[in-house]
Amino acid sequence: MHARKILRLSGPDTRDFLQGLITNDINKIDQGLTYAALLTPQGKYLADFFLAADGDAVLLDADAEQAEALMKRLTMYRLRAKVEIAPTDLGVTRGTGAAPEGALADPRHAALGWRLIGAETGEDDSDWTGLHVAHCIPQSGIELGPDSYILEAGFEALNGVDFRKGCYVGQEITARMKHKTEMRKGLRRVDITGAAPIGSAITAAGKPVGILYSQAHGQAIAYLRFDRAKGDMQAETAQLHWTP
User: What is the residue range of 229's domain?
Assistant: First the structure.
């Protein structure tokens, strides 16, 4: 598991503050763990994270490599809002078997089991990369980067975006992609023979088609340009095939 960092947001304006920033409805934390992202005003991905209620406060479970920049961005947006944003010493454990007390279901997909924010850090011996590939679930720092649009990355299927909640940073572009344009590119699971480094260019008939990412058990996650992703495709010495 990528190292995680838990932030605590507290204060009377916490929920209103987050509601105006994140892609999902903050009030879903009353029902369980909530997955969301923070975007640029241009609708590009900055960070993805989980949110959990902690009394009147909110715990934010982020990739450790994104946490410092995320804290700075949240602090920049805070202005006069009565919100305190602080790092914690909490950790995250996760697994796919029987859930311990206090664990919450991973909201992205049932196959990803549960997550527990607490004193410990770790994960069981589930084939995590295989699960992510099998269900085309992107990971920060791999499939999700600064050029990503969350709808191309499958956030709607991952329960990471709410189209009824109202305005948030990057909402206008995200809504336009949902309602006014046909998706021409995006992450898809492909069949792969062989292997190639993450980030390898995918070509078909000598033309660029996309980028290869995580791979497991003869399958891979790839970012594809759909109109070109036909027939035999290559990524270095690996052979790829996608069935729309």
Answer: 185-241
